[in-house]
Amino acid sequence: MAEKKETTTTTEGSLKKVIAHAKEYGFVFPSSDIYDGLQAVYDYGQYGVELKNNLKNLWWKSMTQLNSNVMGIDAGIFMHPTVWKASGHVDSFNDPMIDNKDSKKRYRADVLIEDKAAKYEEAGDENRGQNLRNRLGKLMEANDLEGVRALMIEEEIKCPVSGTLNWTEVRQFNLMFSTQVGSVAEDSSTIYLRPETAQGIFVNFLNVQKSGRAKIPFGIAQIGKAFRNEIVARQFIFRMREFEQMEMQFFVRPGEEMKWYEHWRDTRMKWHQAIGLPAEKLKFHKHEKLAHYANAAVDIEYQFPFGFKEMEGIHSRTDFDLKSHQEYSKKKQQYFDPEINQNYIPYVVETSVGADRLFLAVLCNAYNEQEVGEGEDKKVRVFLSLHPALAPIKAAIFPLVKKDGLPEKAQEIFKTLQQDFNVIYEERDTIGKRYTRQDLIGTPFCIVVDQESLATETVTVRHRDCTEQERVAIADLPNFIGNAVSFKRIFEKL
Ligand code: GAP
Predict the structure, then answer these.
(1) Which atom of ligand 1 is nearest to the CA of 357?
(2) Are strands 342-344 and 335-337 parallel, antiparallel or unpaired?
(3) CB distance 201 to ligand 1 below 6 Å
């Protein structure tokens, strides 16, 4: 392979640029676009779906193929309503909501207060910021919603739209979407669209353990849609009402959970770096205040254009969920451990990453602007430097010109490669324009068939990031591309 030139990235993709790029080049579209969109719902386009599927496949294989003690399932979105009672979601999966009476806009009261705290901190008043966060934390813990409102008034937190302090009271707003099952109204009952995929794993714990003859420690992985009626949906696909989670629950012997928590915390951080996210843009954020069911929790945050934000959560969930399901279902959720001759409810370490947040991180990181040319020819080249294993299209095959038998030869190569890889054939426009189109969607290789190809059975291969070209034998192309795009390149780094 050709030596890669150092890429000089001049500016980093701001969120606005990334959103515009995602729409223009077929990655992400607003939902129901012709009706002006539906807030917090997005559709993945022709290249977006390929990138997202590659991320999901990679995660799936990293979990289930690389760990012989992790198995996958695919549970339904709808579950028995009692599941959500047992999990605590019916009673406490709430956000504090407040409306401004003048603008009629709705906000999350806690987010408004946190934004104010962040402003103090940005202005250098760390203590005041922290103090405000602590006060908010205490009020939320005590479910003192009047206190939250009073704190907003005291801090003079105004509506960003109307600029007034004319707030309603603060109300708890449950984030679960509900609907009815049953065709006859009288017989119908309320069920929920799952707000996390994890519960589908918990209720199948014994099914998988028994049918798979699994021995603790073992894990169950799942990828699937989750739904949350987010009060404020912001930042593109970062916070959506319909999104996808990739979750794994790892069942362990009580008392061994911290060892596994540390293992998965470190494994997952390594994974994000292996797919190409730079170490300096990733960090751990340890939860100081833990949910009642957790005895340790940490987020892996990525530095999005709008700051470091949660991308994945790793939680030591104790035996809370299984114990609660045992209570509500009256079915034992125990495991007999032959090594210690004991029955117990296993403890659980969870890894939970949002496929859409991961997609956004990968897209933001891949977006590159590079100044090329001199004087009047100076221009900005935009390209997506996606890892070849993740790129939607692996290679584009071009005949240099549309004559002299070059299209036929290029088609022949295309048809062979198509059987193993997602490749495309292009003969329209100048070669420069064709390169540009592939750069914009992150295709790592452009294969050009020229006159020499007919005589020597070789082609030129242009590398996306450095734009350098090398000559490769046509017979070697499947290996050449196969090596570059293989998940193995990523697995080797884990
Ligand atoms: N089972 C644990 C759980 O659901 P969470 O922190 O609420 O934990 C896990 O969610 C991950 O799901 C987050 O780290 C994030 O990547 C993703 N996620 C959560 N809410 C989301 C939303 N509204 N839009 C997109 N992704 C979301």
Answers:
(1) 16
(2) antiparallel
(3) no
Range scoring the smallest mean pLDDT among 111-115, 341-345, 484-488: 111-115
Q: Quote the pLDDT of residue 78.
A: 97
What per-residue confidence (pLDDT) applies to 357? Answer: 98
Whole-number Cα distances in Å, 373 to 384, 404, 436, 465: 19, 32, 14, 16
For 56, residues 6+ apart whose C-beta sits below 8 A from its C-beta are 223, 244, 246, 355
Q: Is 360 in the pocket of ligand 1 (CB under 6 A)?
A: no
CA pair distance 473, 396, nearest whole angstrom? 16
Is residue 228 lining ligand 1, measured as CB closer than 6 Å? yes
Mean pLDDT of 402-428: 97
- Which atom of ligand 1 is least distant from the CA of 240? 24
- Ligand 1 binding pocket includes 413 (Cβ within 6 Å): no
Query: Which atom belonging to ligand 1 lies closest to the Cα atom of 247?
Result: 1
Q: Is 243 in the pocket of ligand 1 (CB under 6 A)?
A: yes
Q: Is 359 in the pocket of ligand 1 (CB under 6 A)?
A: no
pLDDT confidence of residue 6: 39
Q: Work out which ligand 1 atom sits closest to the CA atom of 352.
A: 9
CA distance 274 to 244: 21
Q: Residue 224 and residue 210: Cα distance in Å, rounded?
A: 23
Termini Cα distance of the chain: 23
Can you give the pLDDT at residue 13? 47
Q: Report which DSSP code applies to 354.
A: E
Question: From CA 403, how far away is CA 330, in angstroms rounded?
Answer: 75
Three-state secondary structure call for residue 236: helix
Q: How far apart are CA 336 and CA 414, in angstroms?
A: 55
Model pTM? 0.93
Q: What is the pLDDT of residues 174-208, one digit of tens each?
A: 999 999 987 766 666 889 999 999 999 999 999 99
H/E run at residue 283:
strand 282-286
What is each CA distance from 434 to 5, 101, 120, 405, 462, in whole angstroms? Answer: 21, 54, 50, 19, 12
Is the CB of 240 inside a 6 Å radius of any atom of ligand 1?
yes
- What beta strand segments (E) does 147-200 contain? 171-174, 178-181, 189-192
Using the mean position of ligand 1's atoms as its centre, give its distance from the Cα of residue 354 in Å.
6
Is residue 119 classed exposed, middle or buried when 0-12, 13-18 and 19+ CB atoms within 10 A define those classes?
Answer: middle
Mean predicted confidence (pLDDT) in 419-432: 97
Query: Does residue 352 have its Cβ closer than 6 Å to ligand 1?
Result: yes
User: CA 270 → CA 257, 358, 493, distances in Å?
Assistant: 20, 14, 8
Residue 357, both tokens: 């947040």
